[in-house]
Write a structure and sequence with these properties.
Layout (H helix, E strand, L loop, with lengths): L2 H27 L3 H28 L5 H33 L7 H23 L8 H27 L10 H33 L3
Helix pairs in contact: 1-2, 1-3, 2-3, 2-6, 3-4, 3-6, 4-5, 5-6
Length: 209
Amino acid sequence: MSGTHANRLLAAAVIAGIASIPAAVSAASQGSPTLLALAVGFFAVVAIVALLGTNFPLQRDARADLDSAGRVWGWSNSLLATLAYGWGAAAMLAVYGLSALSWRHWWQYGAGMILFAALAYFCARYALGDRRAQPTRSGLRMLASMTLAQAAFVIGALTYLIGSGALDTQKDDWAANHIFLAGGIVLALISIVSLLTYRKLAARSAAPA
């Protein structure tokens, strides 16, 4: 699979994310959890389609290994993760900054997600190195380890969010919980699918010629 195809899928997810923000603000202004779920769910669905459209061809292509597809694997999944964090920040800041909902922690979580977006991008840049050069096997392993850590963190956060009953709250943080759930599901799937792809690419690289 070419980097161009991955970029097109990423662009579609970016457009969906941008389109979902005003819809989320409108839903929050109306006090409608259903409409907000549809708004954030729209972004989540398009992001997941982009994720699968990027990774499945790499998993199915018997010729794809870490040497030939490592850069596409690393950057496409890292940029999707960066987008998911960035979308969560934008949604949080817009919903609570532009609607009548009041929750004192909105800006803290928004700022935190901006930080996570930056970390996702710069960790990938460090692990993969110069875009003009082939990434090293050690760099790819490092990125896979970071992805595993992200999976553990996000799945743990989702488990707490669902298990604590926070999704049933009647307080104004209900909108934040919708954003957390949609973004968390996307990030968990990015981590899991990315790790599965890495495993297949690594197995092909280790196979005798």
